[in-house]
Amino acid sequence: MTTKQFIGSARRIIFRTGHANRIIVSKESRCLSSKPSYYHKPGSEPLKQISIGQLLDKAVEKWPDKPFIFSKHQNSALTFSETKAQVDLLAQGLLDIGLSPGDHLGIWGVNTNEWVLTLLAAAKVGIVSVTMNPAYEPPEVKFCIGKTNMKGLVFDSTFRDKNLYEVMTKLVPEMTQCEPCTPFRSKEFPDLTHLIVFSDCDETLEGTYRLDDVFEAGKGNEDRRLVAENLIEAEDPWNIQFTSGTTGDPKAAVMSHFANVNNSYFVGKRMGLHLKNHVILCQVPFFHVFGSVLGILGALNHGAALVLPGPLYHPDESVQAVIDYKCTVLYGTPTMYVDLCAEVEKRSAKEQEALKKQGVEVALTAGALCSPVLLKKMHDTFELRVFSLYGMTEAGPCAFQSQVTDTEEQITTTVGSVAENVEIKVVDSEGRMVPMGQPGECWFKTYACMIRYWDDEQKTREALTETRWLKSGDQFILTEDGFGKVVGRVKDLIIRGGENIAPKEVEEHLEKHPSVREVHVYAVSDERLGEDVAVSIRLKEGTTWSEDELRAFCKGQIAHFKIPKYIEFVEDFPKTTSGKIQKFKLREMLEKKLGRKS
Predict the structure, then answer these.
(1) For residue 130, which of 62, 240, 279, 586 is within the disulfide window of CB 3.0 to 4.6 Å?
(2) What is 183-217 written as a DSSP string?
(3) What is the rounded CA–CA span in Å between residue 268 and residue 297?
């Protein structure tokens, strides 16, 4: 028997059944010709079995007088012990106004001290926070409140040129007939009873509490808070993150204390946050896991200080915050770093040289892939080391990360190596491992995996296998030493400057217009954002629609970053022989027209 014949026969195991013999391919034999694409990175130390409230308490024990938050735009600072005092008071206030452990509390606002305090206060007493993008338009807010059975919502009274209080009065008209600091009942949202405004104004708005009112309510008996704290277990849910998929509305990923406490710890440890008193420029928004998990919880784990340069991202404010607070670590998406480097270039040669000597040591980038050109630019601008991070919200979020020992080639061509306590495998379309070095879909098995998607068993089953492997949707190559390379996406998710956009969600909105016959939304490459949104539209006969009219149709209905930048009106679409639309060809044609490469 030849070697080829032997391998062929080894792949077939014959099972005798009642009526016939079946030939079945053994799963273990599929990779006889090569090592399978699987890697496990053991942990260097035990995982922490603690809640976020306990994490805060332990941080205060270790670093009571160290600074925790510097909010530049609010001209304020909080130490770890000052943070705990306010968190405990606010947590008690949330209970005293009528919220209970297990209730869902939305947080809809920009980066402030109060945002951090609210997140931690809810976690302290087992209230599950639901973090929301302040750019959401009314239909998106309506979806988030209804989807998660939200009982309370803490929100900014205004955002940019929008009055968010007026938005809420239209969504919940019953609130205008209710006295301030009084729960109400909503016909549209039967679970929603409490609206709390991030406001320091003297007058409380109808149907709402001010955050100050909740603090005031907490100045009473602390027994209820202590009982609630003692009932929390590490595996309990603490946060719901909205994460865009590829089929319409965002999914609500439920995360546990255990997952995010530990994932943020190991990310910070690999970066060296535990080695000195680091100061982190946190220019990423808190409503994403980058800001809330890697930022807030990472700082609690390692005694680092967070600097909030402004309520929203502005590169000039970020650069000035680096100078003013002597930041040693930068957190941002690739788009932010493009802008930061451009902002530094505007400054004088003397200021540029001073920034190089400022003492910035590390930049963490996530949300999209960094190009080799940008990595070099960041190093030249700040003389720092860049750490890439790859994963997904549902994975806690980190599954791969750069490390100090990585070579320049590994930094510029991979997303880093497998994170501690994480298993990775790369599979084909049937879920079978491909040989090492071959592309396939990347799957994660991790302690930091989400619990489930809230109120969506079908999507949970689609994302998680029976044995808790989480599907990334990314086309990936795994190396034998545990490094990963993203080579494409199974999903057609658009990642615009770190924002995840589901094409289906935008398509479903555009399809509401009476002139639209068929519409397809897809990504197009962009030097600054990584990707931007493009759309190709086939109109109904005898109708017209302009680009300006399309954008006006989207304004106020979907978030500004989801509105297509590139609009093409077409007669037909490229299709496969079976009639499926080929979005990659739409992208190729548009990028050729624009004179750029994918």
Answers:
(1) 240
(2) ----SS-TT--EEEEE---SSPPTT-EEHHHHHHH
(3) 10
Calculate the alpha carbon distances from 356 to 304, 306, 352, 359 in Å.
Answer: 22, 21, 6, 7
Q: How far apart are the first and last CA of the chain?
A: 49
Query: How does DSSP classify residue 560?
Result: G
Phi, psi of 263, deg, nearest 5: -65, -40
Tokens of 101: 């452990």
Q: Give pLDDT tens digits for 519-563.
A: 999 999 998 999 999 999 999 889 999 999 999 999 999 999 999
Distance of CA 476 to the CA centre of its chain: 20
Picking from 149, 91, 97, the residue whose alpha carbon sits closest to that of residue 125 is 91
pLDDT in tens, 377-426: 898 999 999 999 999 999 999 999 999 999 888 988 899 999 999 999 99
Q: Of 48, 119, 452, 66, nearest to 266 (Cα)?
A: 48
CB 195, CB 178: distance < 8 Å? no
HSE value, Cβ hemisphere, 13 Å, CA-based, for 487: 13
- Look at residues 487, 584, 392 and name the one whose alpha carbon lies nearest to residue 37: 487
- Edge-to-edge, what's the strand order for the sheet holding 38-41? 38-41, 422-427, 440-446, 470-478, 484-489
Q: What is the pTM of this model?
A: 0.85
